[in-house]
Amino acid sequence: MIYRKLGTTNLEVSALTLGTMTWGRQNTEEEGHAQMDMALEHGINFFDTAEMYAVPPSPDTYGKTETYIGNWFAKKKNRDSVILASKIAGVGLRWIRGGEGIDRKNLIAALDDSLKRLQTDYIDLYQLHWPNRGSYHFGQFYKYNPEPSNTSEVLENFEEVLQTLQEFVQKGKVRHVGLSNETAWGVMQYVKLSSEKNYPRMVSIQNEYSLLYRLFEPDLSEIALREKIGLLAWSPLATGMLSGKYTNGKIPQGTRWTILKKHNQRNTKQAHAAVDAYLGVAEKHGLNPVQMALAFVTSRPFVTSNIIGATSTEQLKVNLDSIHITLSPEVLADIDSVRRDFPIPF
User: In 10 A of CB 23, how many CB atoms?
Assistant: First the structure.
């Protein structure tokens, strides 16, 4: 396993993170525990979860993933072996504190509830799952429309959030803080406030990033490198699309797309054409397409860790083995060629 510094901290996190969002919906608690066991055995020391999980979110699955992880900690007595990341949900989910946004009141409630479910007294990395003002992730890229008239209110909220996070750090409930699904402007405003007022500094940003979704470049990637706020890349296989499992209109039973029928922004003609092209690159160079896609993300200089998820230990093993793949200049050149043909396929 490869290990990297988490932002400006002294934590060394594995270059692959175990993603957990399917536990409680597509995976049972027993299966989640088996995945955590396997991940640790392969050198992964970084687990990512959220109060919102399992996904797709619903009142019935809310908090299940954290509960499964907490039960595993209680059974294994190994909390110190894991660098644990979780997140507070943003505005909009009515079953989570009435759908209210991220502010002092909701931060306090969310953190206390997560700690109880996780059966721990601290979280290593506490993240803001998405901004109160909205996000261009989750299929909203073409509709995202910043509203500058509320800038002063947004910045006041940023300061309230940082003040509250500072209290968490001082009390030992949180070690470090990070962002998720944030924009370049949002990241730099947090950096500015932290610098000016000595608040906790954001050490990471968890945004979507894959061969099919490279909106992190170039602006956020420069921020990640220059400000040491590395990317924790989510959906590096685009919900499994880059494995080729959905080619020719197939939606195999039990896959994620069987439960994304109402909202699946990735299911476009351009995305399928791009996948076919990337599958061709993998075949040309004798690579497993899953491992090629993951190795590409992990190798990017602005990526701190690549969040891999799976619904079986067999899939997880393939994902884990991607850490041993080094992409040649020829492979990278072919990937670049496909990207130029399909820069934003969904």
Answer: 30
Q: Both tokens of residue 329? A: 């200049």
Q: 230: domain CATH number?
A: 3.20.20.100
38 forms beta bridges with: none
CA-CA distance, 113 to 173, in Å (whole number)?
12
**pLDDT tens column, 278-291:** 999 999 999 999 99
User: Number of structural domains, the chain?
Assistant: 1
Helix (H, G, I), strand (E, B) or coil at 27: strand
Q: Please identify every residue annotated as catalytic.
A: 53
**Structural domain for 315, as ranges:** 3-240+302-326
Could you tell me how many helices (H) and strands (E) the chain has, helices first?
10, 10
- 3-state SS, residue 333: helix
Report the b/e string of 196-235 with b at 16+ CB within 10 A: eeebbbbbbbbbbbbbbbbbbeeebbebbeebbbbbbbbb
Q: Where are the beta strands (DSSP E) in the chain?
A: 3-5, 12-14, 16-19, 46-48, 83-88, 123-128, 174-180, 202-206, 230-233, 303-308
Cα distance between residue 199 and residue 178, in whole Å: 13
Summarised one tens digit per residue, pLDDT across range 139-154 is 888 889 898 999 999 9
The H or E element that residue 257 is part of is: none
